[in-house]
Amino acid sequence: MESGKRLSGRRILITGGAGGIGAAAARRLSAEGAAVAIADLDAGAAQRLASELGNAMSSECDVTQEGSVDAAVAAAARELGGLDGVLTCAGIARSGLPHEMSVADWTSVIAVNLTGTFLAVRAALPHLLAADDSSVVTIGSVASLVSANTNTCGYDASKSGVVGLTRSIAVGYADRGVRANCLCPGVVDTPLARRAREEEGVTSNAVAATPLGRRAEPDEMAGVIAFLLSAESSYMTGSVVTADGGLTAR
Question: How many whole angstroms separate alpha carbon 131 and alpha carbon 139?
């Protein structure tokens, strides 16, 4: 393995890979030697990022639609010659306490954040099982563990579900060479987070409660993701990894 290329030869699919944590991860994984498949609802952004990286491909993918996910995974496996890893970054947020949130908003959040994670992993698993030492990394949130926001019941429930799903995958496939771990970021400065605050009405005291006293940059999450997808985390599965500036330590 070349120095700084701990992911050489790895083939990794990223859902929600064209922006925020997904895009930062795509750049980091590519720099560390991985071939990357960027699947995103924004096909143009995915294609531009793939062109920038070089050792990457892109596809349009709506993670709420089984057929769209299956097609994106099949294309990635075909173009990359298989899959060794999958990273699930697609996510949305909607504001609302339980008595305020519409069923439509609740359903849309669960569909993207939780069902979308399930569909991506389910479609990728036949390819992961055919590879050696494959790895699943899901993106949860500090909201998987504590009530970090004040009015995001759907988001909190979906991200808690991602933790449970990840643990189930870890236990169910441990004897078949597939590891699964969940990264739970704190407050990260992404377009999704900014839209949630500015357009969706999400309110939070999480930054004020974070001991490091700031939002994270997406690149800081990308470093943790690269570790979890690499052989350096070979004895980790079913783990919930927080990168939250100390928020859940309180």
Answer: 22
d(CA 216, CA 189): 6
Catalytic residue of the set 106, 118, 155, 227: 155
Cα gap 85→134, rounded to integer Å: 6
* Residues linked to residue 183 through DSSP beta bridges, in sequence order: 139, 241
- Paired with 11 in beta bridges are 35
Q: Identify whether the C-beta of residue 40 lies closer than 8 Å to the C-beta of residue 18.
A: yes
Residue 155 appears among annotated catalytic residues: yes
For tokens 């669960």, the residue is 110
Strand intervals (E) in the chain: 11-15, 35-40, 56-60, 85-88, 134-139, 178-185, 240-243
Residue environment code for 128-158, b if the CB has 16+ CB neighbours within 10 A, otherwise e: beebeebbbbbbbbbbbbbebbebbbbbbbb
Separation between Cα atoms, residue 97 and residue 99, nearest integer Å? 6
- d(CA 198, CA 111) in angstroms, rounded, equals 22
Domain ranges of the chain: 11-240
Tokens of 119: 């569909």
- pTM for the model stands at 0.94
**What are the tens digits of pLDDT across the range 101-151?**
999 999 999 999 999 999 999 999 999 999 989 999 999 999 888 876 678
- The CATH superfamily label for domain 11-240 reads NAD(P)-binding Rossmann-like Domain (3.40.50.720)
pLDDT digits (tens, 9 = 90+) for 158-205: 999 999 999 999 999 999 999 999 999 998 988 877 776 666 666 677
